[in-house]
Amino acid sequence: MAVSDNLNRSLIGLATRRVIEEMAVASLSVWLQQRFRELLFGVRDFVFPPICWLCGQVMETEPDFCRSCQERFRESYRRACWRCGRSVGPFADTSGGCDRCAGEHYPFRSVRRLGRYEGVLREAILKIKHLNGEGLAVALGRLLGQMLAQTDCPCDAVVPVPLHWLRYWQRGYNQAQAIAEGIAQVLGKPVLPRLLRRQRYTPSQPNQPVTRREENLRGAFALGRGASHLPSAILLVDDVMTTGSTLREAARVLRSAGVRQIHVAVLARAEH
Ligand SMILES: [Zn+2]
Ligand SMILES: [Zn+2]
Question: pLDDT-based confidence at 69, cuts 50/70/90?
Fold first, then answer.
């Protein structure tokens, strides 16, 4: 009995030792991996120091924008109506929307934006429309994502407003998709770039009245591949909201397909 007890104890001791050894090796390996990662990132930052996406200034620690550009972005933020995204005064009662959207019906529940389409935001948005503007668009998306993370904006997936293939071919990428990728990185949600597709080319129509724009956009969007698993709450993303006709039409298609909640996120709201 005593022999069997001793044997059991030594077997348990051996097993415990083995577990401790394995844990030590595993934590050493994690420690080494972490040091290796730090070394690699250190070399990368030394050879390719991070630069501000907007002004190109070399930075030390800022992830996307230098302090001066971050400050300029902050200056462009204004209090906005949660329903239509237009700027409102600091003391306006927006519990039911603002004066400009009272009586309006939207297929989306709310509109979030970084700021008005002016100053530094306008400058940044004009830059992303160039062929190599994708990195800046993703960085601006992360900035918008940080703002959204602080608000109550439930969504299961992030859906960019699609670009017609002809426009995609001219630009080389869809800026709304790049912004959606940046937002999704911060919120930890999936991006569904093919949930909607643009089935008709609609030339830009800045001088058309809103009703004419809406008529022209009818049938411009349709459900794309992957629509068999529709999320119940979607964050619909575009770069700028002007009259809102494009976002309304895209949201209308999603609503009629059965999406229950649609929230809109744009970098800027053009206000006239
Ligand atoms: Zn900068
Ligand atoms: Zn409003």
Answer: very high
CATH of the domain at 161: 3.40.50
- Classify 160 as helix, strand or coil: strand
Nearest ligand atom owner, CA of 68: 1
The pLDDT value given to residue 156: 94
- Percentage of residues in the chain having pLDDT higher than 90: 49
42 part of a folded domain: yes
Do 40 and 128 lie in a common domain?
A: no
Smallest-distance ligand from the CA of 98:
2
For residue 102, report the distance from its CA to the centre of ligand 2, in Å.
7
Centre of ligand 2 from the C-alpha of residue 265, in Å: 14
Residues 35 and 159 in one domain: no
Contacts of 172 (CB under 8 A, 6+ apart): 131, 134
Q: Give the model confidence (pLDDT) of 192-224 as tens digits.
A: 999 999 987 777 766 677 777 777 778 889 998
Domain that holds residue 25: 1-48
Residue 208 Cα to ligand 2 midpoint, Å, equals 22
CA distance 73 to 115: 8
Please report whether residue 71 resides in a domain.
no
Domain membership flag for residue 95: no
- Which listed ligand is nearest to 123 at the C-alpha? 1
pTM of the model: 0.79
